[in-house]
Automatic annotation (TrEMBL):
Name under which the protein is recorded: 9-hexadecenoic acid cis-trans isomerase
Entries under Pfam families matching the protein: CTI
Molecular-function GO term, any one: isomerase activity
Keywords: Isomerase
InterPro entries per UniProt: Fatty_acid_cis-trans_isomerase (IPR010706)
């Protein structure tokens, strides 16, 4: 009987090769009706152990590296058992032209079972018909994709044919269902999985195929230890106190930490949690309140804040660890609960007020809010880097490729006049999320532009009085982290459509810098994290991007106020070369009417450099050394060679990828591999253009930053070199002047996506990263690896 079924499939394939009849293959007749199956085995069963120890590591290191987050091809998220069972969808999450917001498809939020995902249009990649070995391998997309790859490995080419292989993020995605697989196999025989990467090793493929033949039994993550659950219990009790002060405080904390991965910092192997809103109180199973935004109406009388264990593989591009401890709880009590103030009523959840933290949280002290965000400023800024988006060209082309971030001393916010000023300006600080996810861009932008202009004029008047005759306009106005907090300064790197934020002032002095005060930091969070909807329509995403223009320029203006009056507009003109007349009028008028002198006495004719030097000295005690080349376990000669590479600049820099990861094998065989990242920094005349970034490029000012360790989540190229070969590598890098010379560099030191050594190199890279930074690291993403 089994052979007869195989013969029917084979004969049908042959007879109807090239015909649309493929789409009508009657799998129901061959293998029965498709029905979601229960594949989750008990946590401590032998089946679960086999999946977790033998199968899952292969899926993570070969599949999850491309199939995680919203930008996973075909929405196939393989980072959890539930995600694999959910399957794939033909619609893209990233669709920048849609006129109406799309349906939400967030894993573990918008549906709770495979049946519900089927109702939302997801197609299985595992066989859901008869659970026989034959059906499981012939009627499952995943099995067929693996078999296709084994039958048709990558062609024997260093660089794959660009006419046949498309690695662009916006490429057309096939996303075949099982009924469409035969035609897919005929049309794209070399497009098995992993797509555009080497096939799996025989032992890995055999393990996966045996697992699939057995019906793909899986296991969810093991439950947290009892000792961890006791800490969860304590935190849930703290966050769900009955007083109005506690309820408002907890709402504020939730709306800032909902994208973070919470963990307890006293555990060797931490378990990560998400903070969620629930209809049920602690002690009962979580009944998740699923809304588009964390501040949308929960439609319940009482919200409870609960911990839910993260069930997905930790991937670097979305991982934002946030440490909890007894000291952290005491700090929250000190900031929000101990001070003598009264919360008279809880704020509304209507969109206009809930989208504006200056309205919804006006009863909480500004100082408490600001210090809460500053305590973990990297995490706060990281929210818009890693949070609701995994890809964000439209949002990210609003920032320069590398800049430093400083913060106004929070003690400046502990003034009654500051609180009163923000309260008076609440109407001018309204946010685009008040329009929810369907927005008309032009009319909205004009209104927000007027509000921002009104706010900046009022702010300039306020600053004129506060900083009269340059009083306080010195490095002392900048938060120094109390001499112990390395969050006091940050470096942001933009990698075209992704970005990275790190602690400290990394690299040489940048073109621009931001100085953020409370209102700016808060609005950035509510614009790009709490209020941003990746499923929103074109207007919502466009207005969000344009509003961020205002916030960036405000942060830049704060920095410029520390410079001598006579150079402020001169510096600004260099930052906005070729900007439109309207933009020039805006930034030279409303945003920069502040005329008080700087309180700094400048001694050179390069005041910006002098200022950045002074700020770096001011923050010297809290500058981390994590990315310093000098800390690498290499010889002085090796470090000198890398330092030379890190000085690259000029138009030829554009030949390098956004991120190149370099593994150096030390001369000392007892020393672990040393990892480095070469970051390309693309220069621009200005960054005010929405759609034609290329026309604003200043290739002659391009440069690089070379750091020790892994920076970013999306490698574009891999290099492997022995320490003794570093001078030769440097010579090759300096010789790159064309595409041909870049390929010559890769020929000698590159590990291309076509290399037979790709997967062993990948495993070693991820293992080394995990070993070096067990809390912060996650699997890297390979969707941007170049084909060169």
């Amino acid at each position: 009987m089994k052979n007869r079924k195989r013969f029917i499939v084979f004969l049908t394939t042959v007879l109807f090769s090239g015909c649309a009849v493929y789409a009508g293959l009657n799998y129901d007749q061959l293998y029965g009706e498709s029905i979601p199956r229960d594949r989750i085995a008990p946590s401590y069963s032998k089946v679960a152990e086999h999946y977790l120890t033998e199968v899952k590591p292969i899926i993570e290191n070969r599949c999850v590296v491309c199939h995680a987050c919203y930008d996973a091809p075909c929405q196939l998220k393989m980072s959890s058992a539930e995600g694999i069972d959910r399957g794939a969808h033909k619609e893209k999450v990233y669709e920048g032209t849609r006129l109406l917001a799309s349906n939400l498809t967030r894993m573990f939020i918008d549906a709770q079972s495979t049946e519900q995902w089927r109702e939302l249009g997801f197609n299985p990649v595992l066989n859901e018909r008869d659970q026989s070995a034959e059906a499981n391998t012939q009627a499952g997309v995943m099995a067929r994709m693996l078999q296709l790859k084994q039958a048709h490995p990558l062609p024997n080419q260093k660089v794959l044919d660009h006419d046949e292989w498309d690695f662009s993020l916006d490429r057309d995605q096939q996303c075949p269902t099982i009924e469409e697989m035969a035609k897919y196999e005929q049309d794209y025989p070399e497009w098995g999985m992993p797509y555009g990467l080497p096939q799996l090793a025989d032992n890995e493929n055999n393990t996966l195929m045996s697992w699939l033949e057995a019906g793909a039994p899986m296991a969810s993550v093991p439950p947290a230890p009892q000792s961890t659950l006791e800490k969860v219990k304590d935190w849930e009790a703290f966050l769900n106190g009955d007083s109005l002060k506690q309820q408002l405080t907890s709402r504020y904390i939730f709306e800032h930490l909902f994208v973070a991965h919470l963990y307890f910092d006293d555990e060797e192997q931490p378990v990560f949690f998400n903070l969620v809103r629930s209809r049920t109180a602690p002690g009962k199973p979580v009944d998740l309140i699923a809304t588009r935004r964390p501040f949308d109406a929960p439609n319940v009388d009482r919200v409870y804040y609960r911990f839910v264990q993260v069930r997905e593989t930790i991937v670097d591009k979305t991982h934002m660890p946030y440490a909890l401890s007894d000291a952290k709880m005491a700090r929250l009590e000190e900031l929000f609960l101990t001070p003598n103030y009264t919360v008279t009523e809880l704020p509304s959840y209507d969109p206009v007020s809930s989208a504006n933290p200056m309205v919804s949280f006006t009863q909480l002290p500004v100082e408490a809010r600001y210090k809460f965000m500053l305590d973990n400023a990297q995490n706060t800024i990281m929210g818009f880097i890693k949070g609701p988006v995994c890809r964000g060209q439209l949002a990210l082309n609003v920032i320069n490729d590398r800049f430093w971030v400083f913060f106004v001393d929070p003690d400046m916010a502990n003034l009654p006049s500051v609180n009163a000023f923000y309260e008076r300006q609440a109407h001018n600080l309204r946010m685009p999320a008040e329009k929810e996810s369907n927005t008309l861009p032009i009319t909205s932008w004009l209104r927000y532009a007027k509000q921002q202009g009104d706010f900046l004029r009022a702010k300039n008047d306020f600053m004129e009085a506060t900083f009269k005759n340059g009083e306080h306009l010195t490095p002392q106005v900048i938060w120094d982290g109390a001499g112990i907090n390395p969050n006091a300064s940050l470096t942001v790197f933009r990698h075209f459509d992704s970005a990275t934020v790190t602690k400290g002032l990394v690299g040489e002095q940048p073109k621009t810098a931001w100085v953020l005060d409370y209102s700016l930091l808060e609005r950035i969070h509510y614009l790009l994290v709490a209020g941003f909807d990746v499923y929103g329509n074109f207007g919502h995403q466009l207005v969000t991007r344009m509003y961020m223009d205002f916030l960036r320029m405000e942060g830049e203006s704060n920095f410029l106020s520390l410079l001598p009056e006579e150079v402020r507009h001169q510096e600004l003109a260099d930052w906005y070369q070729g900007a439109s007349t309207d933009l020039k009028h805006f930034i030279q008028g409303d945003i920069n009417e502040f005329e008080q002198p700087s309180g700094i006495k400048y001694l050179t004719d390069t005041p910006k450099k002098e200022l950045l030097d002074k700020l770096k000295a001011h923050l010297a005690q809290v500058q981390p050394t994590r990315y310093d080349l000098s800390t690498a376990a290499l010889s002085n000669q090796g470090i000198a060679a890398l330092t030379t590479i890190g000085r690259l600049q000029g138009e030829h820099v554009s030949l390098f990828p956004e991120l190149s990861y370099i593994m150096v094998e030390p001369n000392d065989t007892n020393t672990a591999p040393q990892l480095f990242t070469l970051v390309r920094n693309s220069a621009h005349k200005n960054i005010s253009s929405l759609f034609d970034e290329e026309s604003n490029r200043l290739f002659s000012r391009d440069n690089v930053t070379l750091v020790r360790g892994i920076l970013g989540s999306y490698p574009g190229a891999f290099w492997y070199v022995k320490e003794a070969e570093l001078p030769a590598l440097t010579e090759k890098v300096l010789a790159v002047k064309s595409e041909e010379s870049y390929r010559a560099l890769l020929d000698e030191f590159g590990v291309r996506r076509t290399s037979p050594e790709f997967w062993p190199f990948s495993d070693r890279l991820n293992q080394t990263y995990q070993s070096n930074y067990p809390i912060e690291s996650g699997l890297l993403d390979y969707n941007r690896i170049e084909n060169r």
